[in-house]
Design goal:
This protein is mainly beta. The protein has 2 helices and 18 strands.
């Protein structure tokens, strides 16, 4: 009963929050005028994409093209094909399709802002609706832009939102470092059940400071990772990072309970991406 009451409270909060975080439109550009985007007290907007143009803006995004499985034995081949990532009705759509392509049985897309949007500290928020279906694994996350401390996980990873289709509507936020990562069972993370995450847009965000990172769904803070001031092995988050949006298929986590082929095509829809710096 307690969990049902908490879920009802969170849904009521989301209904209120959605008013202040409504999406903006602009017919001529993928970047809406800054004065048309709701202000956040104490922050200044420094980068955004509202996806209101006809095509994905190459000045803001690049495509990763490979069949490496994301390092997690995923089943998709990431492409730049317009069938896997495109703008539709003012939304960025990342679509996973069951089709044979370069030795893989699925195609999808993985977009990133590397060297086009790189930030150290601030608020990074993404309004998105995530897909349903066993085997889907959408993610909104960040990696080091310069790998100053070495390869993964030494230079860190910030997972703003992850969702695995076999556990619907459970949203995960986590960090990975040399000291704290899933390969050694020490990752720092938290989860929150959002009953309508696969049917409604929600804002997934972090507020990143020199001494901690807060994780939010809409305006509900559900996880904080603190800087222990014990070295880069625990806190590599003093360097610039870039944003990644992708939809994986299967893999070490997403495919734990197999893949439902009838769930495809499946898609993640992104209403906007906004990055703010603390005043």
């Amino acid at each position: 009963m307690k969990r049902k009451i908490v879920s009802m409270i969170i849904l009521m909060q989301f209904a209120i929050i959605s008013i202040s975080f409504a999406s903006c439109s602009n017919d001529d550009s993928t970047t809406a005028p800054k004065d048309s985007i709701p202000e956040i007290p104490g922050y200044t907007l420094v980068w955004n994409d509202e996806f209101d143009g006809q095509y994905i803006n190459p000045d803001k995004w690049s495509w990763e093209i490979n069949g490496d499985g994301g390092g997690n034995n995923e089943l998709q081949y990431y492409t730049a094909q317009p069938t896997n990532s495109f703008i539709e009705n003012g939304k960025l759509v990342i679509k996973a399709i069951k089709e044979n392509y370069n030795g893989k049985e699925y195609t999808s897309a993985r977009l990133r802002t590397l060297n086009k949007g790189d930030w150290l500290y601030g608020r990074i928020e993404v309004s998105a609706k995530i897909p349903t279906g066993r085997g889907t694994w959408p993610a909104i996350w960040m990696l080091s832009s310069d790998w100053s401390y070495g390869g993964w996980p030494e230079s860190g990873e910030i997972d703003i939102m992850e969702h695995v289709g076999y556990d619907p509507n459970v949203i995960h936020g986590s960090i990975h470092t040399k000291a704290y990562n899933h390969t050694i069972g020490t990752q720092k993370s938290a989860s929150l059940n959002i009953p309508n995450a696969t049917s409604t847009y929600h804002t997934y965000a972090i507020e990143w400071f020199a001494d901690h990172i807060d994780f939010y769904i809409d305006q509900y803070k559900y996880f904080t990772f603190n800087n222990e001031n014990s070295g880069w092995e625990e806190w590599p988050f003093d360097k610039r990072f870039h944003l990644i949006l992708n939809l994986a298929v299967g893999g070490n986590w997403g495919g734990v309970q197999g893949v439902d082929v009838n769930a495809f095509p499946a898609q993640m829809e992104v209403d906007y991406v906004r990055v703010y710096k603390k005043d």
